[in-house]
Design brief:
With about 600 residues, this protein is of the alpha/beta class. About 40% of the residues lie in helices and about 15% in strands. The longest helix is centred in the middle third of the chain and has 20 residues.
């Protein structure tokens, strides 16, 4: 049997049309569009093709009107009636007796006055145009538009509800400076706020169940629950959730944090009903458990946060998804790097928290050619400085680097580690983010951490976000001048610096860049965040001390600077940190990783 390759026809058509004039090419394209089915995702092809036809100089009026009619038919099938009516009106302007347009008007029950624009009124954009405009607006502007009596307010509502979060259990908020989250202290719970969120989550789930159009516009879903809460059963909430998930036909991204049972039931339902999901993020609240994740054939982003448990099932899942994964994040302090399960050459974002071994560094530096973002944290169990020296030109596209060494193995003695890392980043002028957190005290000498680690910073001229540990031998007056002038987000780890707060702030203040908008200070006892603004960083808009964050509110007088609580509740910073920091013009403080 002879084998026929349809690509031969495409090549022949291309070779023939090369020798034709623009008008002849337009006639051939129009002839092909007449035979293009109006359904099955052909609207984009029709839109771009007709747009190209309309730009041909001297196009005959018959071809011009025929192209508009074809586009109007496709738009009507797709539900874009306003833009279709504009095309029909344009055709009637050129050819008032066009029978095909009249037939369409009759079949679609359109009145002739619906096709006419007000002669002296301002131009009115179609819903499609307003939608394209709204897509470029940040969330804070979309929320403001909700109050505008205009069709764009409904578009803003639809875009805002593309991303929804469901809170199934109470959230315990920290109440004091440098205090952590306590799951045992019931006084930390805002009952009214929790009840509001529970009612909101139930209302959203109900809307998904009864309104297919609303469900179809959701692209991102976040599910937040804590297994520590034993005061109530989640049977009803989980039941509603599992009934609502099959309605989310266009869901692309899902995040679920909670108990093993909740996550397992959720991802199994997603796998069954939404197999083409692209981004999946899981956060296990139960320690020392593992989870069997079904295979998703279209998964590009995967993130897992857990503590303990068996990594074999997770490694098998990653190995099955290695051909499609482009971003991977694993956070488990008890696990080793899954070098055999992943394909590093295909990853653009990688985050790993666990045991930092020679095999991990070698694999990343040898095969991570496409990496744009790299985040490593955990206990150092090797001496990787020879690898950094050997692969100084590795990772050519790296723009965001985060290294946090929480502890050192007793056998680790690598005094060339910090100098080798400095040489590794010295010539990377494209670096936008550089975070380096290292243990201090007696362990400084074992990894060669001293003031020279800060000496490389002036070479990183394009740096926008900097976070580093201050070594004990670094002059604080010099530290501010070493920070690159373009940095807008700065985090200082004071673990190795024993100095008075006011003295530290006064010494570092003269050299701080004027572009700074976000400052964070860790491992230092500070009585008041206002102290940081008044004595050290008067230009910033956000101050972070430990796990607590404040926004700076300035009055009309230049001498008055008041420090207020975060705009909005604690949940905004906990679950919508990126949106809130962008609102405060501190977007550089957001880590550009798998979820960023």
């Amino acid at each position: 049997m002879p084998v026929f390759n349809p690509r031969i026809l495409e090549a022949c058509i291309r070779d023939v049309t090369v020798h034709l004039t623009d008008h002849q090419k337009a006639s051939i394209l129009l002839h092909a569009l007449e035979r293009l089915p109006t359904e099955g995702g052909s609207r984009e092809i029709m839109e771009s093709s007709v747009q190209a036809l309309l730009k041909v100089n001297g196009l005959p009026s018959t071809d011009f009107t025929k192209a508009l009619v074809l586009r109007a038919k496709t738009r009507l099938v797709a539900g874009y009636r306003t833009s279709a009516q504009q095309d029909l009106h344009s055709v009637l302007t050129l050819d008032p007796d066009n029978q095909e347009v009249k037939a369409i008007i009759h079949s679609q029950h359109l009145r002739p006055e619906m096709l006419l624009r007000e002669p002296n009124g301002p131009p009115r954009f179609s819903i499609e145009v307003w939608t394209q405009i709204a897509l470029f607006l940040p969330k804070r502007d979309l929320k403001s538009i909700l109050q505008v009596p205009h069709p764009i307010s409904r578009i803003a509502s639809q875009l805002l509800f593309r991303e929804i979060d469901l809170h199934l259990t109470p959230l315990h908020e920290p109440t004091g400076l440098d205090s952590g989250v306590s799951f045992d202290d019931a006084s930390d719970v805002d009952r009214d706020l929790d009840n509001w969120h529970h009612q909101r989550s139930a209302d959203i789930l109900t809307r998904i169940l009864v309104d297919p159009q609303f469900a179809g516009q959701i692209r991102s879903l976040g599910i937040h629950a804590a297994s520590h809460n034993l005061s109530q059963s989640l049977t009803f909430q989980v039941g509603m959730l599992l009934n609502a998930l099959p309605k989310l036909s266009n869901l692309k991204k899902a995040h679920c944090s909670g108990s093993r049972d909740l996550i397992l039931r959720t991802i199994r339902c997603i796998h069954k009903c939404i197999p083409k999901i692209q981004e999946l993020s899981l956060e296990l609240a139960d320690p020392s458990v593992d989870i069997d994740i079904p295979r998703f054939k279209h998964l590009t982003h995967f993130s897992l946060t857990s503590e303990g448990g068996d990594p074999n099932s997770t490694h098998i899942f990653i190995a099955h998804s290695r051909d499609t994964l482009r971003a991977l994040a694993i956070q488990n302090s008890c696990w080793h790097f899954p070098a055999d399960a992943i394909s590093l050459r295909q990853l653009s974002c990688l985050e790993f928290g666990g045991h930092l071994t020679t095999e991990m560094f070698s694999e990343i530096l040898s095969n991570g050619y496409q990496l744009d973002s790299l985040k490593l944290s955990g206990s150092l169990e090797c001496s990787p400085s020879p690898l950094f020296r050997q692969h100084q030109s590795a990772l050519p596209f790296l723009r965001h680097l985060h290294i946090r060494i929480t502890s050192l193995n007793r056998q680790v003695h690598d005094r060339d580690l910090c100098p080798s890392i400095s040489e590794f980043v010295r010539h990377r002028t494209q670096l936008r983010t550089y975070h380096l957190f290292l243990p201090c005290g007696s362990e400084n000498r074992r990894i060669g951490f001293d003031a020279s680690a800060w000496g490389v910073l002036p070479a990183l001229s394009q740096l926008r976000s900097l976070a580093m540990t201050i070594p004990c031998d670094l002059a604080l007056g010099l530290a501010g001048w070493l920070v690159p002038r373009n940095v807008s987000a700065l985090v200082l780890d004071m673990e190795g610096a024993a100095v008075d707060v006011v003295s530290f702030l006064k010494q570092i203040r003269p050299g701080i860049p004027t572009s700074l908008k976000y400052v964070g200070i860790t491992n230092m006892r500070i009585r008041s965040a206002q102290l940081v603004v008044e004595h050290g960083f008067p230009q910033v808009r956000v101050v972070a001390i430990g796990h607590n964050v404040w926004s700076v509110i300035r009055g009309c007088s230049a001498e008055f600077e008041a420090l207020g609580d975060i705009t909005g509740p604690y949940r905004r910073v906990r679950f919508h940190q990126k949106e809130w920091l962008e609102l405060m013009e501190c977007e550089d403080a957001v880590w550009k990783g798998v979820d960023g």
